[in-house]
Amino acid sequence: MAIERTLSIIKPDATRRNLTGRINAKFEDAGLRIIAQKRIHLTKAQAGQFYAVHAERPFYDELCTFMASEPVVVQVLEGESAIAKNREVMGATNPADAAEGTIRKDFALSVGENSVHGSDAPETASVEIAFFFSGLELVG
Ligand code: CMP
């Protein structure tokens, strides 16, 4: 198994409810190391750029408005098979389908307000990490 890095975002529904620490504990308990982290307030244009791949989806405008509504915490997680492991810890996109003990099962409010985002593949992880962080900010 390879050591990977993945981009994680703690979304506005979770920062609003003061859940950053509890979500980070789930990452760390799963063996993922938080090697970069910052709290930022995205503009709607920045959210739109980050989620450009979803531009044609009916929920795109709602998604961008939500992601710019309040601060988010962006972070880089590192560990063995970090991309898949993070997806496992997050649970299914829709909290109604998420397994017991996952972040989305425990904290998400809906498919839109689903508390966390995680990269879905190595190629997207590199692009998404570079969207928010310079190499100097990644301290493994
Ligand atoms: P995320 O992993 O951040 O990637 C894209 C996001 O779009 C996804 O999580 C959901 O929060 C959001 N999303 C997916 N489907 C819907 C939907 N039907 N309505 C609103 N938001 C959605």
Provide the β-strand percentage band: 15-25%
Helix count, DSSP H or I runs of 4 or more residues: 7
Question: Helical amount among residues, as a percent range?
Answer: 25-40%
For the biggest sheet, the summary is: 4 strands, antiparallel
Shape: globular
Low-confidence regions: none
Class from secondary-structure proportions: alpha+beta
What is the N-to-C order of secondary-structure elements (H for helix, E for strand)?
Answer: EHHEHHEHHEH
Q: Features of this protein?
A:
alpha+beta, 7 helices, 140 residues, 4 strands, binds adenosine-3',5'-cyclic-monophosphate, four-stranded antiparallel beta sheet
Description of the structure:
This protein has 140 residues and is of the alpha+beta class. It has seven helices and four strands. It has helices at 12-16, 20-29, 44-50, 60-67, 82-90, 103-107, 122-132, and strands at 3-10, 33-40, 72-80, 116-118. The longest helix is centred in the C-terminal third of the chain and has 11 residues, at 122-132. It binds adenosine-3',5'-cyclic-monophosphate.
